[in-house]
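Weekly puzzle thread! Below is a chain. First person to post its structure in token form gets bragging rights.
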Amino acid sequence: QLKLVESGGGLVQPGGSLRLSCAASGFTLSSYDMSWYRQLPGKEREREFFGRIGSDGTTFYVNSVLGRFTFSRDDHKNTVYLQMNSLRPEDTAVYYCRALATWGQGTQVTVSS
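Winning reply:
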């Protein structure tokens, strides 16, 4: 069974950092691209794409997170990490990872003082 399990969300002050994890089971993560999305408050029907880490390790970020967010992957743990720095209130959202047409369950990130 293909599964993605996310963790690491929480409450952080503006300017702070969080690291999200997305652990895969049932498939080898390094063989596939992984995309990340977030669902902003009040937009329950929309998940906006903000970045991707390719099977070859290349990364892409949209402008709003470029320079603040960084993907990495631990192939031994079959896990992708999202390091988020310099967080802003507008980063508040539920964050999702997606690979092989499978979604993680989402993890809430709240940036507030």
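Puzzle host: Confirmed. Bonus trivia for everyone else. The mean pLDDT is 97.
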